[in-house]
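WARN retry 2 of 3 for item q-0093 after timeout on previous attempt; input resubmitted unchanged.
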Amino acid sequence: MAETLPALSEGEKQCLRLVAQGFNSKEIARQLDVSEHTVDQRVRTSLRKFGVPSRKEAARLFVSGMERSPQSDTYQPLIYQPEPLAPDPEPASSLAQPDRPDGQTEHKTLLRRILAFGPPLGDRPMN
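OK item q-0093 returned
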C-alpha cells in the first residue's frame, strides 16, 4: 500500500470506522440506516481499494492512515503560546505601600510598569 490512503467515499469511511470498532455488517447497517447489502458492498469496495483480503485489515489500515496523516478538511486547534511578560524594572517598588505618603513615587512606579510593555499607542510619544 502507498503512504497515502486510497480515495474512499464517505460511506466507505463510515463503514471502515465501525468495522474497526468491532461492529458486524448488521449492526453497521442499523447505525447508518442502510441495508446490510449496502454495508457489505462498501466494505468489498474498500477491500479492493486497499488491496487486502479481510475487512479487519482494511479497517486497521484506514484507522492507522487517518492517525498518521489527518485530512485537509479536519480541524486542528491552534496552540496558544503567550509572549513572556517584560520584567518589572524595580520589583520591590511595584508593591503598593499604603503607609508611604509619597503618591508621586507610586505614580512613577506605575508609569514605569506601563512603559515596560512598549511605547503607547497614538501620534505622539509620552514624555
